[in-house]
UniProtKB/TrEMBL annotation:
<dbReference type="Pfam" id="PF00528">
    <property type="entry name" value="BPD_transp_1"/>
</dbReference>
<feature type="transmembrane region" description="Helical">
    <location>
        <begin position="191"/>
        <end position="210"/>
    </location>
</feature>
<feature type="transmembrane region" description="Helical">
    <location>
        <begin position="146"/>
        <end position="170"/>
    </location>
</feature>
<keyword id="KW-0812">Transmembrane</keyword>
<dbReference type="InterPro" id="IPR035906">
    <property type="entry name" value="MetI-like_sf"/>
</dbReference>
<keyword id="KW-0813">Transport</keyword>
<keyword id="KW-1133">Transmembrane helix</keyword>
<protein>
    <submittedName>
        <fullName>Sugar ABC transporter permease</fullName>
    </submittedName>
</protein>
<feature type="transmembrane region" description="Helical">
    <location>
        <begin position="97"/>
        <end position="116"/>
    </location>
</feature>
<feature type="transmembrane region" description="Helical">
    <location>
        <begin position="62"/>
        <end position="85"/>
    </location>
</feature>
<keyword id="KW-1003">Cell membrane</keyword>
<dbReference type="InterPro" id="IPR000515">
    <property type="entry name" value="MetI-like"/>
</dbReference>
<dbReference type="GO" id="GO:0005886">
    <property type="term" value="C:plasma membrane"/>
</dbReference>
<feature type="transmembrane region" description="Helical">
    <location>
        <begin position="7"/>
        <end position="29"/>
    </location>
</feature>
<keyword id="KW-0472">Membrane</keyword>
<dbReference type="InterPro" id="IPR051393">
    <property type="entry name" value="ABC_transporter_permease"/>
</dbReference>
<dbReference type="GO" id="GO:0055085">
    <property type="term" value="P:transmembrane transport"/>
</dbReference>
Length: 287
């Protein structure tokens, strides 16, 4: 592809991403309210941000949400990849089924799980209709359990793509490894965990970083399932940013929160690039 053909993509990347990020950073140092202002206030917005209880709750929620969602998605994704690696019948069909949730809009995913967890429409209502009248399962209506309902919906949406990345890593393992493990009498589960998994660290790390980046900016599924409630029990940083820029008309504080969200994303992407660079350097030295 010639430089002329790539010019529109370069302009878009610079104009939409780099310039907008810089502009957002500039606004985070101002007292902008409904409209942008260039009355600079230094770090006042950041100080106010970290003294705002709603933001602190958002940060605590994203840690819990991210830890459980990413961790369980990685575990279930690897187990599904191992299952698919057994040369099962109709593998293509099953792979499509597992990947289908990832192809769906997060809004659709959130609405589907909201209905399933609704006490009057979903699982609780169905089980009670079968005669178990004392059965209770409505996590979204309880402030102490609502975030766990979000985690279930998030795992269902993301586990398929994790499986696909892990499966690609598994398929890249030399068949001689498996033959040697069988000759040595190593059980299959130990081969997967202690031999194969360390060898596919590139696929594991890629899946992990993609999951983490998605968790930092999670918004759609929260709005669709709980709208940040009950109360602010499932408030997330992205929800905080959008609310303060649009509803609360506090652009300066919203941009400060957005820049704080950008920090872990940049760190994770930089770490991914560094690991890939180290991998290429190691391969070149090996050759």
């Amino acid at each position: 592809m010639s430089i002329i053909g790539t010019t529109p993509m370069i302009v878009t990347a610079i104009g939409v991403f780099v310039i907008c990020i810089i502009y957002s950073g500039v606004l985070s140092f101002t007292d902008s309210r409904m409209l942008p202002s260039y009355n600079f206030v230094g770090l006042a917005q950041y100080e106010r941000l970290w003294n705002t209880s709603r933001w602190l709750i958002s940060v605590n929620n994203i840690w819990l949400f991210g830890l459980l969602s990413v961790g369980l998605s990685m575990v279930f994704g690897f187990l599904l990849a191992v299952f698919m690696d057994q040369k099962i019948r109709h593998e293509s069909l099953l792979r499509s089924i597992f990947l289908y949730p990832f192809a769906m809009s997060l809004v659709v995913t959130g609405l589907a799980w909201r209905w399933m967890l609704d006490p009057g429409l979903g699982i609780q209502s169905a089980v009670q209709g079968w005669g178990f009248e004392n059965f209770r399962f409505a996590p979204l209506v309880n402030a102490n359990t609502a975030i766990y309902g979000l985690i279930v919906g998030s795992i269902w949406n993301s586990v398929g793509v994790t499986m696909a990345i892990m499966l690609a890593g598994l398929r890249g393992i030399d068949g001689e490894i498996w033959k040697a493990a069988r000759v040595d009498g190593i059980p299959a589960w130990r081969t997967y965990i202690f031999i194969v998994l360390p060898m596919m660290k590139g696929a594991v790390f890629t899946a992990f970083v993609l999951q983490c980046v998605g968790m930092v900016r999670v918004y759609d599924i929260v709005i669709a399932m709980t709208q940040g409630g009950p109360g602010i029990a499932t408030q997330m940083p992205a929800v905080f940013v959008i609310e303060h820029i649009t509803d609360r008309l506090n652009v300066g504080l919203g941009m400060a929160a957005a820049m704080m969200m950008l920090v872990p994303v940049v760190f994770l992407l930089s770490l991914l690039a560094f690991v890939q660079w180290r991998g290429r350097v190691a391969k070149e030295k090996a050759l």
